User: Fold this.
Amino acid sequence: MFEPKAFWTVAMGRGLLALGAAVLIVGPALFSIPQLQLLTQFLSLLVIAIMWNLLAGYADIVSIGQHAFVGIGAYAFYGFAVFAGLNPFIALVMAGATALLFALPVMLVIFRLREAYLAVGSWVVAETLMLIAGKLSAFGGGSGVSMPVSVVKELGAQPALRYETIYWLSFALAGLALASTFILMRSRVGIGLTAMRDDEEGAGAIGVNLIRSRILCFLWAAPFLGIAGGIITLQKLRVAPPASFSITDWTVYVIFIVVIGGIGSFEGPIIGTIVFFLIRQYLADIGVWHFILLGVLSIAVILVEPRGLWGLLRRIVPQDLIPVSHAPPRRRRAQTPDADKAPSPTL
Amino acid sequence: MLELQSLYRHFGSLKVIDGLDLSVAKGEVLGVLGPNGAGKTTLFNVILGVLAPTAGKIIFEGREMTRMRPWDRCRAGIGRTYQVPKPFSNMSAYENVLAGAVSGGGLPLRQARDWAMEVLDLTGLDHRTASPAGSLSLLDLKRLEFAKAIACRPRLLLLDEIAGGLTDYECDALLEIVQTVRKQGATIIWIEHVIHALRRVATRLAVLYGGAIISNGAPDAVLADPKVREVYLGVEA
Assistant:
């Protein structure tokens, strides 16, 4: 059992998470349009961070080309909504499906590489896709194109209603990303992924299929990134290669978020996204210095605690706030082996 | 059960395993001896698929597995422990074993939970189930290596110097586990330098030197073999 103080740290942490979720649920009633837009950005970036953490933190796919799928989602959303004339909600789903479809050939290329080569390879793939997007004249070529008003109005006649709808879309996507990734991590596959996080060779030796686990994570992340790209397009109301495929916005910041929050933990991306937005909102006035501060902070956190701010907090918080790990069963089985339920070591 | 046919593993010009032939029958406990650098751990890594052989065949239960991935070999029934324990440090001892039960053991989660607890009991870790693996003592880490391997329900268990670095008392504790597993019918290949531990359970000894088997047979006969005494025990023939 935990000491009372330790118990309270867990209860407080969970209370804060619940409070944050409650604030997000009543968000549209509480906040102004600019604040709602900010929260939409927060939730979109949270989704991207959760997915990068799954790839880099568990499956050892340290991709620096994640912006490729955000960009593909953005362009696919625009294409399905504007050219195919689909309802924007269906176009978002199609954006996710397109990202998943693209993930298959991309995976075949970059999974032939490991470690630093994989990182560089994923970046090259993303930059190539951005250059190709710049050649698509129907999408405005290198300078991009704005969303037609008719498409935007399908989300709501008034701007306030539209922003609220976009907010709920990002809220639903973040909720789905968190819930489904939580279920994944609690499953048999997730136990294997957690073992991979700690020791890849050791995980292979106990039967964790490293290749299948990596493929699953890669394909898992792609549709979420694609839909996030679509939602970001709805916010920005345009697609353009440098913005839709922005390495800074959708990969560099995301790496910062996950590293500072705590790579390889479920709580890390949430903490990292909160810290990132706090710094960006309250220190943006100091100009370029806030980027320098971000860099210094991430280096300092890595040096002090490689598992990030959540790793630091775990020194006083004795268990996960979001319980993805498995506690030993309290009720013990009888000592006599039951051949039907517990197989013998030798079969 | 296991057959190694004309097995070679070269690193450039270094011939670590050089034309090795070896077979292990079901239920045997084969002790593998050899001086440092004889190729013992490389042999395990080749059997387990961590390293691909330069040439030769590995046949397990009549099925060739020379090109199989390590996790497929584990699921086919070969478990291992590491000489230097490789725990999943940020997971609890229970989760380490659970990972073996669901992955290599192929058990559904519900059944794996019971099995993991049973294995923790068997290996004497029942008092450390919730402890992070990174915080365990050397003896408990060795127990955990054992537990992870057993959780995979192997029919062939490869033990890599599990007695190294332990006191006599600790060594006895691990030997008890080996004896229990053996009584349940597991086939074991055990690399070890602690000969008195090996003699207590091994049904056969093989001595590896220069990447090949130089002596193979009943423990007493092998330990009395002049070649073995010369290359391994440092006693002139």
